[in-house]
Design a protein that fits this description.
Radius of gyration: 19 Å
Largest sheet: 2 strands, antiparallel
Helix content: over 70%
Distance between the termini: 36 Å
Shape: elongated
Oligomer: single chain
Structural class: mainly alpha
Number of strands: 2
CATH class: Mainly Alpha
Strand order of the largest sheet: 1-2
CATH architecture: Orthogonal Bundle
Strand content: under 5%
Number of helices: 6
Length: 179
């Protein structure tokens, strides 16, 4: 099924961020090369997420589709985007510790990762509480990319509201009794 293949691609995108973390952790590359790889990866992921969401929209346009699968796919898609950007923020922080404000320098890596998951969720939802924020251009570029993903995803979901409502209505109609 199309959705399963898409989810595996999302997982591969997330895995690429984890690879970047291990490149940094094991000090395999220099700072400039890691930053280049981080931004190249972020741009590729952003383009891929937009492409995949547009492909789902194209695949469902004018056709009957299962409401639950559609929403599940977008839920997974949004979760993967948030997790992906959290990994990017965490990697950027590991490369450049002054890229974000209000992340305690003496905190454990797990605490930092959780803080960046929270920051990514706040950014994606546009809540932006301001307790964590980028202080350098590199962080601002990543935040801008995530906000663009939010806008594109929101537009794609809203553009399918009518078909979604029809799909839901078809599921709730009582079936005629057989005689």
């Amino acid at each position: 099924m199309f959705y399963r293949k898409a989810v595996w691609r999302f997982v591969l995108m997330i895995a690429s961020g984890v690879v970047l973390f291990f490149l940094d952790y094991n000090e395999v590359a220099g700072r400039s090369l890691k930053l280049f790889f981080l931004f190249a990866l972020a741009v590729v992921k952003a383009v891929y997420f937009v492409y995949l969401n547009l492909d789902i929209l194209r695949a469902t346009a004018g056709r009957h589709f299962d409401f639950t699968k559609y929403l599940l796919f977008f839920g997974i898609s949004v979760s993967m985007m948030i997790l992906s950007f959290a990994i990017d923020y965490f990697c950027l922080y590991r490369i450049e510790s002054t890229a974000f404000a209000n992340i305690p320098a003496d905190s454990m890596p797990l605490e930092q990762a959780i803080a960046f998951c929270y920051f990514s969720l706040a950014t994606f939802s546009t809540a932006g509480f301001g307790d964590i924020y980028p202080t350098q251009a590199a962080g601002r570029v990543l935040v801008s990319l995530e906000l663009l993903m939010f806008l594109v995803t929101t537009v794609l979901i809203l553009s399918n509201i009518h078909p979604l409502r029809e799909s839901l209505g078809q599921r709730e109609k009582p079936k005629p009794e057989s005689k």
